[in-house]
Amino acid sequence: MGAYILRRLLLIIPTLLGIMIINFTLVQFVPGGPIEQMLARMQGEGDVFAGFSGGQDMGAEETFGSDSDYVGARGLPKEFIEQMEVEFGFARIVCEDGFTGVPSVDDPACEKEMIGGLERFGMMMWNYLRLDFGESYFRSIGVMELVLEKMPVSISLGLWSTLIAYMVSIPLGIRKAVKDGSSFDTWTSGAIIVAYAIPGFLFAILLLVLFAGGSYFQIFPLRGLTSDNWEDLSLIGKVADYFWHITLPVLASTIAAFATLTLLTKNSFLDEIKKQYVITARAKGLSERKVLYGHVFRNAMLIVIAGFPAVFIGVFFSGSLIIETIFSLDGLGRLGFEAAVARDYPVIFGTLFVFGLIGLLVGILSDLMYVLVDPRIDFEKREG
């Protein structure tokens, strides 16, 4: 097993590199870079793409005045725009030999030199290997500091949503498999399918209207993860206040997860229950509980465990932009959306690198869980 884990860890390197190359390449074709965004803000333009004259290559040489490809650049000094290119890492200042002053783009002893995309990518990956993820273009804060600042919201939504989904769906799926075809199976299937069909944002709005002071009851708060006086509360008060705030967002983000996981568990158990070894175990006089949890469970849960990494990454890290917006929660979902809109490349690529790495490591963890659930599985023999 050790050799298999080592091979998987080594495979992370080319996989993560491929992810970064593909996304970095795609970004080159997206119009409106960070300088474009900054200029649009300074000029007070509501739409950064207004008057866009073509596909902007990030870091392409720009000219001053009406010939500039930057929207909103007219009326701004050329030196100012060039200085922004340097600050954003699209260009560097090259000075004459022997020059000892502070490099500046408007210094006669220095000149601007554009940095190509391949070189920028190499510099970015080298910094990432040293765990240097840079600083946000627009927030004046380190990328990891920004992620850690937003992490409590995503942890709260992702962790509780995943736990509730698994704690409810797996026992419910097993029960439905045992009672297959009964009235219990029928009405629970109808309920979870209806829940699956309801869009998450619509259910979130419904919860707000019903229980957060919309038109009926004002039981839960409208926004935030904690109250304004959270620091003044006792330990028990803080815990109660936290769960009071997180109840509605977690319900809204979990409702659609029940259907897939429950039906997957049910179908997996049904397949195993029909096999010969289950009939043999029952013929030996084993109790139904012993048959289900001593024999069927390990085999039936393999397919459920296989989907764990996708559920973990999808819910825990990506967050839910709509849920966070409706409940005024500032998490990773909104962070990713705002970074993409603003073309905040350090945030986009830094978080992509970190979450991609974690996702690959969780995939290895899933394989270890396979072995834990069913010790008969040996990945090294299978590969041999």
Describe this structure in words.
The protein is mainly α. The chain is built from 16 helices and 2 strands. It has a two-stranded antiparallel ribbon. Helix 5 (143-178) packs across helix 8 (235-254), helix 10 (276-283) packs antiparallel against helix 11 (288-306) and helix 12 packs antiparallel against helix 15 (345-373). The longest helix has 36 residues, at 143-178. It is globular, with a radius of gyration of 27 Å.
Main sheet properties: 2 strands, antiparallel
Strand order of the largest sheet: 1-2
Main structural class: mainly alpha
Radius of gyration: 27 Å
Count of helix runs: 16
Low-confidence region ranges: 46-68, 98-102
Distance between the termini: 12 Å
Output the helix-strand order: HHHEEHHHHHHHHHHHHH
Molecular shape: globular
Summarize the structure.
The protein is mostly helical and 384 residues long. The chain is 64% helix and 3% strand.
